[in-house]
What we know:
Blueprint: H1 3-22, E1 28-32, E2 44-47, E3 50-54, H2 58-74, H3 87-100, H4 105-116, H5 122-135, H6 140-156, H7 162-179, H8 184-197, H9 203-223, H10 228-241, H11 246-256, H12 260-271, H13 282-287, H14 290-297, H15 310-333, H16 338-359, E4 361-364, E5 367-370, H17 390-397, H18 400-415, H19 420-432
Parallel strand pairs: 1-3
Antiparallel strand pairs: 2-3, 4-5
Helix pairs in contact: 1-2, 1-3, 2-3, 3-4, 5-6, 6-8, 7-8, 8-10, 9-10, 9-11, 10-16, 12-15, 12-18, 14-15, 15-16, 16-19
Amino acid sequence: MTDEKQALVEKIIKDVHNVLSKTAELYAFDIVPVETNFRNKSPVMCIENCLGLESWCVKQVYLHSYTELMDKACFQTQKKCRQVLDSETLLRLLNVTLLINPDLSVLWNKRREMVQELLLDKSSELKFTRLVLSRKPKCNDAFAHRRWILGTYLNNHQINCLESLINTELIVCDLTADKCSNNYHSWSHRLWFINKLKNVIKQNDMHALYIKEYNFSERWMSKHVSDFSCFHYRQFCIKNIYNLSNLSWKTFENSSDINFRKVLVCLLAKNFPKDKTIQASEQDLVSYSEENLMKLLLSYNNSCSCNIDSVSLCRKFELLCYELTLNSELVRFYKHHESMWYHRRFILHEIIEMMYDHFGLFRHNGVLVKKSCKYCKTTDLKQKQAKIIRSHGDCLYKSVLFQTIIKHEKKFIQESEEDKHAVRHEKYLKLIQGLNNLM
């Protein structure tokens, strides 16, 4: 590279650094397709808090900065004279190199070293990673660096404004997920962040966040029906909702504007088994207490002497039946989307597992076996037997809820027979869930 070109490249690198250091509210970076420098001006642009770099200079800038970093900062061989870059020059080179190509773990490690040596501010690093992710929303190294910075904050509780930090992080996750469909790295980062907050904020505030995320995931899921990363996050949200307190559950129902009991009762009324005489209308079932409703749907015929938390169990079934109803609507409207059928498998698996747990059963080698209770420690001498005992399965198979769910799935599969995923779903229920003789 000639001295003239090198001087131009160094000026461009310095211009990028100046924009980064002087513009606090930068939120996006991209390379602008310009083939030649016809304007004879700096290729670094900053318009409305967006940083741009003209494409004609990218190759020269990247090669120069990358070579300088490798030779003088990252990989120094014995044959070469040891040249140490000052912190400002090092930062300038790191900034422009990672903006152009952020998939370089060794350079992110160098930035971590600078943070540890107090040469870089943590808050500025969060802004820089957001800038990188605006152009490369699937960059795992940028997310990993962001998690490392957030971890140092959250582990030491060094947070002045936690609410602002949470909002900013969720906005970054929204933007990256929106820019690139099926962005596994973005949704995984969001899940990690929510889990990390459990040790930082109060339980009531955590429950409020669970509710907010559940409602958000429903809106997103309804608009991105092929994004299974979102469905996986939705499943994480559902499991968090299981643990809501009584007060938080009421808040959840009000904020969602959904009567979960009515949804459950409606699904039941349309699929009640014919051989059952239920002396209750839909209106009566809505007014049932949780204990009475669970007695009707499951019957307490298990041998365990432990008390059953009817309220918690009923709420879980209400939530899952709402999920099943919502999933049915989406599948009917958006046909031939595999992700929604996979999500349906999760819902049914959760419902069946809860019924297994209620009756003290588990599936072993394809058959239902009675298990000992981990609380009251009752044992079953035949627990390890592979041969199924008829009475074990009967308590489950004869329950109103089980028969209702089976009938509902049969009808839904028949309605969706044109969708190839419906056939696969039926095979899943028969072969994986062990319902071969019931479907």
